[in-house]
Design goal:
The chain is of the alpha/beta class. It has helices at residues 24-36, 57-70, 91-97, 141-153, 173-176, 184-194; strands at 2-6, 44-48, 80-84, 115-119, 122-126, 159-162, 197-202, 209-213, 216-220, 227-228, 240-241, 246-253, 257-264. The structure holds fe (ii) ion.
Length: 274
């Protein structure tokens, strides 16, 4: 099982204040083209929110078209694409236009983009951390109750949880203040009790970051568009930096477990046989 992870494309973002930025649509197209040339083709592509900058229908339509243009359909050997919304999204508009990417569970809490899908041997559970009108994220008891039921139903079977706000603290104060403000402790207990959560994949931070929760690795993929400056000083202002975009690439086999790679979208010289 090979899982690609692209996040925070922010389609519709005005990048004129970011000199040298190709624009979010071009940047996403490059990331998807990169996924397409990975051999073997990933089985699953996770999109962990901030799909658009402002939740506009036309940007979700553009995403849908771009996925169709850049990736083979699952029936033609392409990856299954699953998505959850982020704080810049309009979850209801996203669910309407991207219903195939967001197959909301029949028993999901009202209005929440909660998904649970089995693909191969892996369970994929998507959570919705969006608080309307806020940049920070929450899960809340109803969603965690739903998650608990899902995890009990697939107890000790390999599982990936994906969500927008990472359930770890980065040390980048300006981002942590708009991170997952609570619910981390109970999420960690549920993950630990399950026993086979292989990975928690998230976005929001616009940086590559690795942590752990409840015994599972937490992998935060960078944005396909623009990164947040790495500044761990207290009170540091939020700033962007055009570091190279990266796709998360996570390999899992039942016997060997999980290995998490980051694959650069840009071209570099090589490979040179050694
Ligand atoms: Fe974002």
């Amino acid at each position: 099982m090979l899982i690609a992870h692209v996040t925070d494309p922010h389609l519709g973002l005005d990048t004129t204040v970011l000199p040298g930025h190709p624009g979010p649509a071009t940047a996403l197209r490059r990331a998807l083209a990169h996924v397409r040339q990975i051999d073997p083709m990933p089985d699953v592509l996770l999109l962990t929110g901030d799909l658009t900058e402002a939740g506009k229908a036309r940007d979700y339509e553009a995403l849908k078209c771009m996925l169709q243009e850049e990736l083979p359909a699952p029936s033609a050997g392409g990856p299954l694409v699953l998505a959850v919304p982020g704080n810049h999204d309009s979850p209801s508009v996203a669910r309407q236009i991207l219903s195939e990417l967001m197959p909301v569970a029949a028993d999901a809490p009202e209005g929440r983009t909660c998904l649970h899908m089995k693909h191969g041997l892996m369970h994929f559970i998507g959570l919705d951390t969006v608080v309307p009108g806020q940049s920070y994220g929450l899960l809340d008891d109803m969603q965690l109750d739903w998650l608990e039921a899902q995890l009990k139903a697939c107890m000790a079977q390999p599982t990936v949880i994906f969500m927008h706000h990472p359930p770890i603290v980065s040390g980048i104060e300006a981002m942590d203040s708009c991170g997952l403000l609570r619910d981390r402790a109970r999420l960690g207990r549920l993950v630990a009790a399950h026993g086979d959560v292989q990975l928690i994949a998230a976005g929001h931070l616009h940086r590559p970051l690795v942590g752990s929760l409840g015994g599972a690795p937490v992998m935060v993929a960078p944005s396909s568009s623009h990164q947040i400056d790495l500044n761990l000083l207290p009170g540091a202002p939020l700033a962007c930096r055009l570091e190279p975009p990266v796709v998360g690439l996570y390999r899992h086999t039942p016997g060997e477990g999980i290995a998490c790679h980051f694959s650069y979208v840009d071209q570099f010289s090589g490979p040179f046989p050694i």
